[in-house]
Amino acid sequence: MVNSSKLQRDVVMSTLALGAIVETGWTIFLAVRLPRHYVANHWDLAWVGLDSAQVIVLLLTGWAAWRRRAILILFANAAATLLFVDAWFDVTTARYRDLTESLLSLTIEIPSALFLLWMSRRTAKRVTRAWLSDSDLALVPTHRLKIPHS
Fold first, then answer.
1. DSSP state of 93
2. What is d(CA 14, CA 22) in angstroms, rounded to the nearest whole number?
């Protein structure tokens, strides 16, 4: 008889591997087919949307830190990811005359993203320690779990 959790894990792992293979093919296709120069519609909306998402997720991260909620882990990772994406697009889409400004933004975005990842890791360690030290906490939903003081 097959262990159902092992079967579920195998399905998840196979799906992720298949997704990576499909994404690799799509990336190669785009690398060959996309034009080097392209004028984008709604350029302003794309940038304002990305920056708005950053503001929202940073506010949620701040709220979770203030309330000492374990969901800080999710929000901090999302905020860090958005900062890395913003840094990537700042540099790769900059015109030559704007490159200095884009590189300057990296000095803020990359350290901020790394700090958020550090904060997420630190919070995950604390939450894990709390779960391992108090079996009653395993029954508490993660979003309601307060982060213990060290």
1. T
2. 12
Return d(Cα 60, Cα 72) in angstroms, integer.
Answer: 8
Provide CB contacts within 8 A for 87, sequence distance 6+.
Answer: 105, 106, 109, 110, 113
Domain boundaries defined on the chain: 1-34, 42-144
Please work out, in degrees rounded to the nearest 5, the angle formed at the alpha carbon of residue 17 by the alpha carbons of 15 and 20: 110
- The pTM of this model reads 0.78
> Tell me, what's the pLDDT at 7?
84
Helix locations, 34-98, DSSP H: 43-66, 72-92
Q: Please, which residues bridge with residue 69 across strands?
A: 146
pLDDT, one tens digit per residue, over 14-49 is 999 999 999 999 999 999 998 888 888 998 899 999
* pLDDT tops 80 at residue 61: yes
Q: Residue 95: phi, psi to the nearest 5?
A: -70, 160
The values of phi and psi at residue 34, to 5°, are -70, 140
SS3 146: strand
Within 10 A of 33 (CB to CB), how many other CB atoms are there? 7
Chain center to CA of 140: 25
